[in-house]
């Protein structure tokens, strides 16, 4: 199938779905809201989210319920996109969507880990088992991290998490790292089955994403976990755009955070390490904002490619993250100016 035939119909569908994205004026108004009820009411009355919230009593809507509604809608829209693909392209998109399933698995693992203290698990696990063969019923019944790992037996993640049981490393940190490794490994394998033009675009895109996540991981591993260079390197993603394996190794063996900052700057990623007192809080946002605008540029350069579908999924993800960030800012009574600093989309 030629590229125009494959992507013309898909791009038409994506353009139609993109009309439901929020605009700058919506963000500006949301930042002025002082309660979840006020925010939800605005979304219902003034944005495309009215279809989701039309029958909801927004006066009593909680943050958790709003997130659950948004994530279920995300599943619905990703499924619509998936419908237009076949064969290796459909399998690749399913691998791309595993990112959201892994986020749910991580949140579940954290809730299990903390349940003895909190006694409450209240998260919208909309993606578990949706695009994989993970048995959601068994996973959601897990009472310990070991139970959770064992419940993943036979799934796409089994080979990556099972060694944690053999080495008695079934702790939260190692489980999260194993799931991240699984995601990028599965994604890379499935992207290699696409046509040459899309493989080249993805090699660039996935390499750039890996660069950013590896830098974030090395920084956090040094600052918060005090890990050895060998262990840092062991948990990095085995892909890269500007950062080769040898350069990754050099970063892991950097003497301190200042040297890491300097090396990242030489690679063009110095923006991650702005030296303000809340730099750690903003690092994730900086990564996502960088990806947001790089995707915009890629869309213009590669209109008939798989990057169009990837961009839609990520833009939808970022929009939901921004809405939830605003709910958190409301919770802490931050001003619109302060709240805007936490958003992926610059307003």
From TrEMBL:
It holds the Pfam family vATP-synt_AC39. Keywords: Ion transport, Transport. The keyword Ribonucleoprotein does not apply. GO terms for molecular function: proton-transporting ATPase activity, rotational mechanism. Belongs to the V-ATPase V0D/AC39 subunit family. PANTHER family: V-TYPE ATP SYNTHASE SUBUNIT C. This is H+transporting two-sector ATPase C (AC39) subunit. It comes from Thermosediminibacter oceani (strain ATCC BAA-1034 / DSM 16646 / JW/IW-1228P).
